[in-house]
Design goal:
about 210 residues; mainly alpha; Arc Repressor Mutant, subunit A; Tetracycline Repressor, domain 2; about 70% helix; about 0% strand
């Protein structure tokens, strides 16, 4: 059994994130977090006044995993692509977190700092400030949408199972490298986003 005296906010948040990954949003209750730590629920409430506060701490942990080194890359295109891929990879690892954080206001230094850094990079590379937010929002839709939905997993039968009624779909499924389709689709969408960023920079420069 754990000891309440050994608990810290960080330790509770780490275990709550692990529970979220394993059991989903419905399984991450204060009581279940307490059970996981071997303490009683009041010990968790001593550190977090509510489940919302704990969810916020979990969100901050997830955002901390994003590799932001691309923000310092001299080549804006390479740097933003690297950050975007790390952003997606992080939320793919913690897919259950997407639904929790996407329905909440953005708060906390980590999450707000990430968006501030992203805007800062766009402005530094000559994107007009009035275009920055729509570009950040587009990237958010792209990353979080692709993290929560696996396109190829929607086809849960072997290709031949679709052959009679959906022959062309069956043909495409049989021909595709299904293990890489989702990643390739994300890369195509990311490239399109980077092209839009480039157009906005061109508009500023013209």
């Amino acid at each position: 059994m754990g000891r309440a005296a050994d608990l810290t906010r960080e330790r509770i948040a780490v275990e709550a994130l692990a529970l979220l990954d394993e059991a989903g949003a419905a399984g991450m209750t204060m009581r279940k977090v307490a059970d996981r730590l071997g303490v009683k629920a009041p010990s968790i409430y001593y550190h977090f006044e509510s489940q919302d506060e704990l969810i916020e701490a979990v969100h901050q942990l997830v955002v901390q995993e994003i590799d932001r080194s691309g923000f310092h890359e001299p080549d804006w295109r390479t740097g933003l692509a690297n950050v975007a891929r790390s952003y997606r990879d992080t939320f793919v690892r913690h897919g259950e977190a997407v639904a929790l954080v996407s329905r909440r206001p953005v708060s906390g230094d980590e999450a707000l700092g990430f968006y501030d850094d992203l805007v800062r990079v766009l402005l530094r590379h000559q994107v007009p400030v009035e275009r920055a937010l729509v570009l950040v929002g587009t990237l958010d839709f792209l990353v979080l949408g692709s993290a929560v939905e696996t396109f190829t997993a929607g086809f849960d039968q072997p290709a031949q199972a679709y052959a009679v009624k959906q022959p062309k779909l069956a043909e495409a499924l049989a021909a595709a490298a299904l293990t890489t389709v989702d990643d390739e689709a994300f890369d195509i969408a990311l490239e399109a986003w980077l092209n839009v960023v480039a157009v906005n920079r061109t508009t500023r420069d013209s």
